[in-house]
Amino acid sequence: MIACKSELRIAIAAALTLASALAQGQGPLFDSAPRSAARPAVIFLYPEQITVPAGKPTTIALHFRVAPGLHINSHTPSERELIPATFSIPAGSDVHLVRIVYPPGTDFALPLDPNTKLSVYSGEFILKARIVAPPGNHLIEAKLRYQACDNNACMPPKTITVAIDVIGK
């Protein structure tokens, strides 16, 4: 019985220590991904609706924001294995993407490796999409694929929908 009480005390102490560490955002089971999963890493700010000349290539500016404390790899990451940010309009859409111009990334170094510079987007960034739309109203569901990271870990790649109402006049 004494051995059982001793084992029970050890188990309770371990559980309390783990619960305390998790509550403080520390510990081996708590990394940045669960904290960041509750809020979107990247959000599309605007425009929600645009009017363009029908049938003529037109450049539009798409505004995005990366959540504080996070960054995403630029379209041209510095390492081959890093996942680039990419924008697309699905095939079969009435609105066609002629070209997308990505902003240059900002150099970023992780605290553990200050000599390696990563090319990232953080804060707000703007993509310039050249599109062609036929006459009429077209709701497009474009996509932005990215991988968000903080200073300690990267989350799995994610794709968000970028809904834009395009009016061709």
Précis, in short:
The chain is of the alpha+beta class and 169 residues long.
Number of strands: 12
Contiguous runs where pLDDT drops below 50 for at least 5 residues = 1-37
- CATH class identity of the largest domain: Mainly Beta
Shape: elongated
Amount of beta strand: over 45%
What number of domains? 2
Going across the biggest sheet, name each strand in turn: 1-3-9-6
**In CATH terms, what is the architecture of the largest domain?**
Sandwich
State the end-to-end CA separation: 84 Å
Largest sheet at a glance?
Answer: 4 strands, antiparallel
Structure annotation, total helices? 2
Structural class assignment: alpha+beta
Could you give me the name of the CATH homologous superfamily of the largest domain?
Thiol:disulfide interchange protein DsbD, N-terminal domain
Integer average pLDDT: 81
- CATH-defined topology of the largest domain: Immunoglobulin-like
Description:
There is one protein chain. The chain starts with a helix and ends with a strand. The strands form three sheets. The chain has a four-stranded antiparallel β-sheet with strand order 1-3-9-6, with no helix packed on it. The chain is elongated. It is of the alpha+beta class and 169 residues long. It has helices at residues 2-23, 32-37; strands spanning 42-46, 49-52, 58-66, 71-73, 86-88, 96-101, 106-110, 113-121, 124-132, 136-146, 148-149, 158-168. The longest helix is centred in the first third of the chain and has 22 residues, at 2-23. It has two domains: 1-30; 31-168, Sandwich (Immunoglobulin-like).
